[in-house]
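[Meeting: bench + compute handoff]

Bench side (C.D.) handed over the final construct sequence. Compute side (W.E.) agreed to return the predicted structure before the next meeting so the bench team could plan truncations. Sequence as handed over:
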Amino acid sequence: MVVIFSGIIENVRQKSPLVCNMANIVTVADCAAVTTACGGRIKVLSDCEEELIGICDGVNINMGTPDRHKLEVMVQVGVMANNFKKPLLLDPVGVGASKIRTDTAVRLMNEVKFSVIRGNISEIKTLITGSGKTMGVDANVDDKVTEKNLARAVEFAGNFSLKTGAVVAITGSIDIVTDGKTAFCIYNGDKMMSSITGSGCMLSAMMAAFVSANGNNILNSAAAAVCTMGICGERARKRLLNDEGSGSFRRYLIDEIENISQTDLEREARYEIR
């Protein structure tokens, strides 16, 4: 039997990849904590720092808290990461919520080649069409992936992956990770994950570490990151006492990411391949 995620977590912990993160200031501390917990290291970029990009193992561009200077820097960082041939992840947070976000995302897609693009379904739709509508940083309720529209969503994500050359990860109640040829439909996770600010940003930060340590298999390492986050969310929820809420859940989630083993991932991941 082929073990799809064999060695992925172990590689992260053995290689301890250094990820340069264009951070969302709302979630920068949590992203740093998750990156460290999973076995990686993180440097937060505030400008296009050639020395850091040159020595890092991967780059994560998060569009969560933009200003005009920062958005320009994102393009510069993306181009430089391409020049250095670094794995590069885009998290188009809130794309479709404002013109400046959407215009910058379109520019990024035109000028930069990404290894992975991770967002909710509304954000990915906006990247494809150049316009869209999101509920702030959350998916529009009309867009959400369900069992009923899953096949159509897999095809949609796959076509976008083939067009861009990037692995596409659409996260929600059902997660889809695809390279246009193979798609993982992932069923791990807990509803409480959507109640904490920045769970998607945390996933992108961890995914960048997974991909950076397993660059020979971007699809499987991106899917492994999604499964890992979902498993840890399930475990964190089980730890909550009656008087504990989202603050405790966030703390337990990070603890579980630090403690999950390769064996745990392979045993508890729930997915199908299409």
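W.E. noted at the follow-up: The CA atoms of residues 9 and 206 lie 11 Å apart. C.D. will use this when planning the next construct.
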